[in-house]
Fold this sequence. Notes:
The protein folds into three domains: 3-86, Winged helix-like DNA-binding domain superfamily/Winged helix DNA-binding domain (Arc Repressor Mutant, subunit A, Orthogonal Bundle), CATH 1.10.10; 92-158 and 262-289, Periplasmic binding protein-like II (D-Maltodextrin-Binding Protein, domain 2), CATH 3.40.190; 163-259, D-Maltodextrin-Binding Protein, domain 2 (3-Layer(aba) Sandwich), CATH 3.40.190.290. It is 45% helix and 26% strand. The protein is rod-shaped, with a radius of gyration of 32 Å. The chain has 290 residues and is of the alpha/beta class. The two termini are 56 Å apart.
Amino acid sequence: MSIKQYEVFAKTAELGSLTRAAEALNSTQSRISHVxxxxxxxxxxxxxxxGRSGVTLTEAGAMLLPKMEAIVQQNRELEALIADIRxxxxxxxxxxxxxxxxxxxxxxxxxxxxxxxxxxxxKLFNGDYFDVEQWLRDGTVDLAFVTLPAPDRTRAIPLxxxxxxxxxxxxxxxxAQPKIDAAKLGREPFISLLKxxxxxxxxxxxxxxxxxxxxxxxxxxxxVIAMVxxxxxxxxxxxxxxRGRGQHVELRPLEPRATRTIALALPQGAVSxxxxxFAESAVAxxxxxx
Length: 290
């Protein structure tokens, strides 16, 4: 038996007429009659009594009607859910992000996406570079903001180049220069993130041939800023991280210039329509607001 046959039976029982059922289902009376007869032949018993005043259910038909109605309704709900998923109007997204993106980009990106897809549930996982890349590898998140190069077995959508800046305490002698020689920065007491937590800064130091005089190490980006504010040392931070927080420190470009490229990484292969829709929405938001 097919869902369409159940629908014909349920609609005929509801309206009590082959003619009205045919009109409601955009069919013909002969077609409706044929479907009902085929059902009765397959089942081996009568479902409806036909008369001049219309049709009435037999006892067997009345017993089957609620089950068939339930199947028809469940099928409608299933088709609606399939359509919602296809149109990114259902499901959930597990999103990984590091601090600067989570603070400065994600609120606007999420607001824009949820306005267009209010039924999609967003779950945010916030951590450092190491955390985010591990979540991608083990499937904890469906997509994540990373810096290039992206983790293995992912496909990356480059989003923006973010300059790395020297961050100094207010009044530091090096702040008199418009650009900071990375070699001079390396001789100062240096506040470092864990190497696994921020490979961009350590890569920039390595490329400049500098081994920093690391005095303090932390996993928290904003702890670095706070420690610099208190005069405990110098460091290197992404421009996005210190956006709106540079009033109590000195920020200068590095010489040679250093940058990181922020990207959105997705697993290789197919992703859900909701995940794909978020990626496209994030790219569009950044083009407009970045």
